[in-house]
Amino acid sequence: MRNLLPPPRSGQPAGAEAHERADAARNRQLLLDAAQQLVREQGVDGLTMDALAKRAGVGKGTVFRRFGNRSGLMRALLDHSDTKFQAAFMFGPPPLGPGAPALDRLIAFGRARLLDIEVEGELHRAAEIGEGVGRYGGPPYGLLKAHVSLLLRAADAHGEIPLLADGLLAVLGAPMVLYQMTALGYTREQIGDNWEAFVRRIVE
Question: Which residues are CB-contacts of 39 (< 8 A; sequence separation ≥ 6)?
């Protein structure tokens, strides 16, 4: 049978190469966790390559090798945040994850998303504005829409489910949420209460 595995580099055993890849992935994860902590504590402006290197206890060159520049770090951090959020609502504990009634999961979904936007809002806003209309056809938005649509159907919501899902997700758009917080002075809790009331009007 033909061996489908690529040959080891420079005579290095395949197992050692796989171990190196696992170490690299783990180190990248640790760097992104440290970056997320910095953003939560100091805001996006506090996230610099120097600050991340110091927080993670690595050389600055290591950070540049992993992400290239600050823009690359920001994109990687947003992907990291979205991946953790997706894992939470797909596989995490209830009420955000499986095991709770659909209505409770919808409410928890919005409140959890608002927490992400509050602490990493500039990242979300930059991404949403940068992607423009095209973001609605991309996989990240598609997964959120599919999840909300599934919960709406499970909750026996009436109406065009895809349109309802888009309408609900629009309430959680980072530019709108940040405007409500910074310009209008609403708290995350108030916006979350409005989300819950909106969801209940649609479902109940």
Answer: 46, 47, 77, 119, 120, 123
Distance CA 28, CA 24 (A): 6
Domain that holds residue 118: 77-204
Task: Judge contact between 154 and 165, C-beta under 8 A.
Answer: no
Is the distance from CB of 157 to CB of 104 less than 8 angstroms? no
The number of helix segments (H) and strand segments (E) in the chain equals: 9, 0
User: If you write DSSP's letter for every residue of 68-79 in order, what string do you get?
Assistant: SSHHHHHHHHHH
Q: Cα 12 vs. chain centroid, distance in angstroms?
A: 37
* Judgement on whether residues 135 and 154 belong to the same structural domain of the protein: yes
Is residue 3 in some structural domain?
no
Statement: residue 6 has pLDDT above 80: no
Residue 188 lies inside a defined structural domain of this protein: yes
What number of other Cβ atoms are within 10 A of residue 101's Cβ? 13
In this prediction the pTM is 0.73
Please report the pLDDT score of residue 43 as a whole number.
77
Q: What pLDDT, on a 0 to 100 scale, did the predictor assign at position 46?
A: 85
Among 123, 67, 172, CA closest to 181? 172
Residue that finishes a domain, picked among 35, 50, 68: 68
Give the closest residue to 166 by CA, choosing from 200, 137, 190, 130: 137
